[in-house]
Amino acid sequence: MSYRTLARRVRTGKVIRVWHGVYAQHPPSTIDRLAALDVLSGKSIVACMNTAAELYGFGTENGRRIHILDPGVRMRPVGELMVHQRIGAPLKRIQGRLATAPAWTAVELARSLRRPRALATLDAVLFKGLCTPTDLRATIDEQKGRRGIVKVRELMEYVDGRSESPMESEARLVFIDGGLPMPEVQYEIVDRCGKLWRVDFAWPDAMVVAEYESMEWHATPEALRHDRMKVARLQECGWMSIPLVVDDVRRHPLDLVARIAAHVDQAG
């Protein structure tokens, strides 16, 4: 097609510009965008940081920016492309493409994030079964001396691969920083009818549980019915159930800790 036709189709959305000089007929996935960079560079692009985490399935940070290792040819970083110098980073093939290894990727990401999100990333890579705590500690030693590595090393004491969402990880760190006893994660309780329930956090000695309620998963009528039945069944067994939402964790952490501590201390 002519340049004028191409420009018109881009304006109308019939053709999508992926990178300068590379176009697609459908919205490109992350794999497609990396393949387009292969075309531009003439090299097989290696994913890292957030992009590698997304390919492995443990990405916790949103954003369209593609992160790649320097391919060795001139490739200028732009708004949606970040080029990194990571000589010696271990690589693994995922979805037909090389990316920095899971443990390396998780530690690198955690170094660059705030403590709550760093813990969420470390939890997520373990939850996916992509590496072990031993792998993470070995990688921390390999990245010794780099910015943020001390923070990551300190967080390893609290890493738990049973956390099923980033916000559960953030909430757990609020409990830890607030001085609460360490909760049991994904704790199982059998009610009087013999039904098994699993709760996000539990302090069994105090008969207190806390459940994170996301708007995405708990806003449907079916989810609301399930949650109400769960709370009622746990209360019948003597458990105090404390709901928490994102604002409790991020905007009012001290109030959240005080609410839980009041019930834990009362039971004690």
UniProtKB/TrEMBL annotation:
This is DUF559 domain-containing protein.
